[in-house]
Design the sequence.
């Protein structure tokens, strides 16, 4: 026998030397939930270990993250008031705008802030846009998404991440950011976002469950792969800086395919349901939380992602530091 693949698996040193997938703490983004009010640190029951923070207390989370080596954040907001047009989403004193200013005041460029741009947390009906009877009106919604994105950037966000899945929003947001001279504000597009039941724990966390119907007329059907290529191509052409795929674990084929499409960085969002399943199974004593967390995260990078948004960001940073992965 000439070929003995087991030679390269003989011990930890040779395995570490020949790992094909390298992961850095620099590639991880931690989601943070901001809630309007003061002195709030409220546990999110569906996302164990995560909290709603009011802007005055969010530093507690940032400190922990920075200590672990994580300095990139994706912000979600829970406003005090909702209405049919989600006006708190673009209010200059909205929860995200307040939160960004506070975080940038305390940490300046030590942290990188990406904001989720969507309407579902701000609308009384919980849909991601402006309704025309029961249908989300695409083109009217673009006006609002663009206002939200510009207001986040004006408050100091480094990058905006539209997650609504309206057609044409990347082009529109790019145009309006540029018109406000916000030319260096990047766009990470939720380019390929499926209508997924893996978001359920998030909807509890963000209070964004639609009051009627579902999101299938704008988010993608999970039977489709070629459509993912179409969506990604459109966003690349419209000026996205980073292409994101969401969810991650059940969509590794999509991550692989989309990562081959262009030279743009490919991000994957390991969503709330993926996190909650691991936590729940570990609590039942049927899996090892740490090992499953490591294995799932590596699989996303192996598939082709360069960036991972994950509720396990701090814990993964520790496993990278220990050399268990990466
Ligand atoms: C907002 C948005 C959602 C998520 C990110 N941005 C919810 C949804 O589309 O229903 C899900 C994140 C997660 O599940 O972790 N539109």
Sequence:
């Amino acid at each position: 026998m000439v070929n003995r693949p087991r030679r390269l698996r003989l011990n930890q040193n040779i395995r570490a030397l020949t790992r094909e997938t390298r992961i850095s703490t620099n590639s991880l983004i931690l989601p943070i939930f901001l809630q309007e009010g003061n002195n709030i640190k409220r546990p999110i029951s569906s996302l164990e270990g995560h909290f709603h923070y009011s802007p005055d207390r969010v530093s507690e989370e940032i400190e922990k993250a920075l200590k672990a080596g994580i300095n990139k954040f994706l912000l979600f907001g829970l406003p005090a008031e909702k209405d049919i047009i989600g006006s708190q989403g673009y209010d200059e004193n909205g929860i995200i705008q307040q939160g960004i200013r506070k975080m940038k005041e305390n940490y300046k460029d030590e942290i990188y802030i990406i904001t989720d741009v969507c309407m579902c947390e701000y609308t009384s009906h919980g849909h991601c846009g402006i309704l025309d009877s029961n249908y989300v009106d695409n083109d009217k919604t673009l006006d609002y998404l663009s206002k939200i994105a510009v207001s986040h950037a004006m408050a100091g966000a480094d990058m905006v991440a539209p997650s609504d899945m309206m057609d044409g929003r990347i082009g529109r947001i790019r145009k309006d950011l540029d018109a406000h001279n916000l030319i260096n504000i990047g766009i990470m597009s939720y380019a390929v976002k499926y209508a997924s039941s893996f978001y359920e724990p998030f909807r509890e966390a963000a209070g964004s469950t639609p009051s009627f119907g579902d999101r299938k007329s704008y988010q993608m059907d999970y039977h489709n792969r070629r459509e993912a290529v179409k969506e990604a191509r459109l966003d690349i052409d419209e000026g996205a800086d980073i292409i994101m795929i969401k969810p991650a674990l059940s969509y590794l084929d999509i991550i692989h395919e989309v990562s081959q499409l262009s030279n743009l960085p490919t991000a994957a969002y390991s969503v709330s349901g993926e996190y909650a399943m691991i936590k729940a199974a570990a609590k039942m004593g049927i899996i090892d939380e740490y090992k499953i967390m490591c294995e799932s995260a590596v699989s996303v990078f192996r598939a082709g992602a360069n960036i991972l948004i994950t509720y396990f960001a701090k814990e993964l940073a520790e496993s990278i530091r220990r050399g268990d992965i990466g």
